Amino acid sequence: MKLPEELLDAAEAYRNEVQKKLVVGHELLYLSQDDVKRIPVTPAEILDRTEKALIAYSAKKVDMPSKIALHPITDTFFHAMPAYVPEEFAVGIKWGSCYPGNREKYGFPQAQGLIIYSDHLSGLPLAVLDCKYVTEIRTAAVTYTAIKYLAPEHTETFGMIGCGVEGRQHVKNIETVLPGLKTIYVYDIYEKAAEKLIEDYQKTLRARIVKASSYEDLVKNSAVIASATVAAESYHPIIEDRWISGGKTILLCEGHTLYQDSIFKRADKYIVDSREQVEQFAAYGFYPFGHPPIHAETGEVAAGKAPGREHPGELIIANNFGMAVEDMFVLRLLFDRALEHAIGVRLPL
Ligand SMILES: NC(=O)c1ccc[n+]([C@@H]2O[C@H](COP(=O)([O-])OP(=O)(O)OC[C@H]3O[C@@H](n4cnc5c(N)ncnc54)[C@H](O)[C@@H]3O)[C@@H](O)[C@H]2O)c1
């Protein structure tokens, strides 16, 4: 995909602004995870950028080949995730990994990686940054976008399965998209993770956060259910079909790992972030029983090009596996703000 001719002057003007703060071609901005966290942005801005990313992807306004995956050890992966967003003058690549055994074995979170952010006019690197926080905030924002269009009206109950990095970020600002929540159920195989989430966030949320006693307890009691656990290669479903009634919205960060296949097959609407990526991951063996027909992409629903929830009784599943374009939309904002606030370290090229 090419930069439209009519944007060339604006692109040069933007590059000149960047040049005032960073000597492009001679240095790059390095942002550690702490640096990224210090950049002043609001959850509303992140949600806005992420929703725009989903819409732009589905409107085919970005260049984003499906991510390339390597799987060195069972249930681990590296993803190479490039994207170019002409209208944002944003181009880069995330080299992200997921090693679910990391915490136990090495004391690190499972998701790791770096992003290289570049100048689309010259091809020169602008920034290298730790990708963890960007991934964390944009992934929760993808779920929030899906909730805006797919959750039942007046939702009072939300369930979060997995209370690690992503689960915590999902719960943190959930009331911005589900303002009527009364109860938030949380569940983690590592009980202390659920307890810590409650301890940290109960003071800032109106809804009561309750540690669910089991998967069954959580899914039966929650109208909207999100999960962020482990994207397993092998299929070991734990959540049973008979626990899932109509009217629920199920939001997946890790593919089909947790749920019995028949739940997907009987869903009224099955929505994904990228049709192309779903097919690619099916080829890697991630959907051993196939996936149901795809109703729409999340970006098509957000743009109003495909219906979201139409009836209170619909069972809707959104499988958002993550896209580089989300990182790039958020990164354009973070990069500009980091330069504005002189955050990060300049490294010579
Ligand atoms: N879709 C996306 O864009 C995207 C982005 C980032 C991460 N992810 C995925 O989200 C998942 C979570 O990532 P994270 O960074 O939060 O990891 P994390 O290790 O910080 O948290 C995972 C939590 O899930 C718990 N857990 C593991 N298996 C479980 C199970 N079967 N039932 C209940 N709890 C379980 C763990 O104890 C841990 O607390 C990973 O699969 C990752 O690949 C997806």
Explained architecture:
By secondary structure, the protein is of the alpha/beta class. The chain folds into 2 domains: 5-135 and 325-348, ornithine cyclodeaminase, domain 1 (2-Layer Sandwich), CATH 3.30.1780; 139-322, Rossmann fold. 35% of the residues lie in helices and 22% in strands. It has helices at 8-21, 33-38, 43-58, 102-106, 132-150, 165-172, 191-201, 215-221, 261-266, 275-283, 298-302, 324-340, and strands at residues 27-31, 68-70, 77-85, 90-98, 111-118, 125-130, 157-161, 183-187, 208-211, 224-227, 249-252, 269-272, 296-297, 316-319, 345-348. The protein has an 8-stranded parallel beta sheet with strand order 9-8-7-10-11-14-12-13, sandwiched between helices. A 7-stranded mixed beta sheet has the order 2-3-4-5-6-1-15. α3 (43-58) packs across α5 (132-150). It starts with 7 loop residues before the first helix and ends with a strand. The mean pLDDT is 96. Bound molecules: nicotinamide-adenine-dinucleotide. Nicotinamide-adenine-dinucleotide is lined by residues 98, 103, 109-111, 135, 139, 161-167, 187-190, 193, 228-231, 253-254, 320-322.
Write a brief structural summary.
This protein has 349 residues and is α/β, with parallel strands linked by helices.
Poorly predicted segments: none
| Succession of helices and strands | HEHHEEEHEEHEHEHEHEEHEHEHEHE
Bound molecules: nicotinamide-adenine-dinucleotide
The neighbouring-strand order within the major sheet is: 9-8-7-10-11-14-12-13
Number of folding domains? 2
What separation lies between the terminal Cα atoms?
A: 28 Å
Q: Kindly state the number of beta strands.
A: 15
Radius of gyration: 20 Å
CATH superfamily of the largest domain: NAD(P)-binding Rossmann-like Domain
> Mean pLDDT, rounded to whole units?
96
Give a short account of the largest sheet: 8 strands, parallel
- Give the helix/strand class: alpha/beta
Q: Could you say what the CATH topology of the largest domain is called?
A: Rossmann fold
